Amino acid sequence: MLKKDLRRLAAIFAVLAGLLPLPAAGESGGIRLPAAESVTELSVTAGSRSFVYRRSGGGMRVNGGEADEEIFSTLMRQICGALQGEAETDTPDGEPLLTVQIGTGNGRQTVCFYADGADRSRALVLSTGDGGETVLGTEAWRVGTILLACEGTQIPAQDEESGTDHN
């Protein structure tokens, strides 16, 4: 099996394990996100890792290369699933584990995931955008599944003559 196939399988299994039941399109528990089709730009950053998605010519691109649209839609559902938490009164502090910035033709929204100091199995989510600021609690494992879905969206470049995977 090729390296890209293993990455995709890992991302798909993570999505299936982490997203049942799925939220309705564009909706989550208290934080509304745009539907995947209306997203013009999305960036996901964790430490030195960064995935930048841009809609171009009817398709989605990630870090300059082609992105798998189906897995991108799954990524958006992953993010929505992570936001189905209970409202929190604590304000997160420190550096975020993961930062997601979502852009549409109508504005931008930022969602940051922080470690919950009191409970390592949970993460605090801070969302800022046109609707103000919202803090929710969610399961910490969701941060990892979002990153796996990001990995799965990248379609590796191939040498057309030999079919060799260059990623």
Topology at a glance:
Blueprint: H1 3-18, E1 41-46, E2 49-56, E3 59-62, E4 65-66, H2 69-82, E5 86-87, E6 98-104, E7 107-115, E8 122-129, E9 132-139, H3 141-153
Antiparallel strand pairs: 1-2, 1-6, 2-3, 3-4, 5-9, 6-7, 7-8, 8-9
Helix pairs in contact: 1-3, 2-3
The figure for the number of domains is: 1
Low-confidence stretches: 4-11, 14-29
How much of the residues is beta strand, in percent?
A: 25-35%
Taken in chain order, the helices and strands follow as HEEEEHEEEEEH
The whole-number mean of residue pLDDT values reads 77
Number of strands: 9
Helix segment count? 3
Please tell me how large the radius of gyration is: 16 Å
CATH class: Alpha Beta
Task: Using the coordinates shown, work out and report the CATH topology.
Answer: Dna Ligase, domain 1
- CATH architecture classification name: 2-Layer Sandwich
Order of strands across the main sheet: 4-3-2-1-6-7-8-9-5
Largest sheet: 9 strands, antiparallel
Which structural class do you get from the secondary structure elements? alpha+beta
Instruction: State the helicity in percent bands.
Output: 25-40%
Overall outline: globular
Q: In angstroms, what separates the terminal alpha carbons?
A: 14 Å
Oligomer: single chain
